[in-house]
Amino acid sequence: MNEEKYIHQQMKGKQPFKVPEGYFDDLAMRIMTNLPDAEQHGATPTVAVHKHRTVRLWISVAAACLAVMVVATALLFQQDSPQHVYKVQATEMSGDRFVDEAADYAMIDNTDIYAYLEDN
Hints:
membrane
């Protein structure tokens, strides 16, 4: 309410905007005469549908579905990979058995192990 009082004090009763005499009396009729007739342009308005937009929409939906299927398939096969099985088995082995398995995997025999120990 203070803002309105401030504005009235600043303007001191002056009206900054003026409308010509009788402007609003025939405004509705002038607007109606400027509108096009319904018979000229058809009874119902038509909306132009661009085929390019719908085709792009369907292509993007298909691409998104394909991407989801590829990711889901990759995750499914990743869970059954042999690396996952080896990680579980390696944590369950005891110390001596793990060393034996690692030596067999690296194809190191006792002679090679003795040679490495002598160097260090």
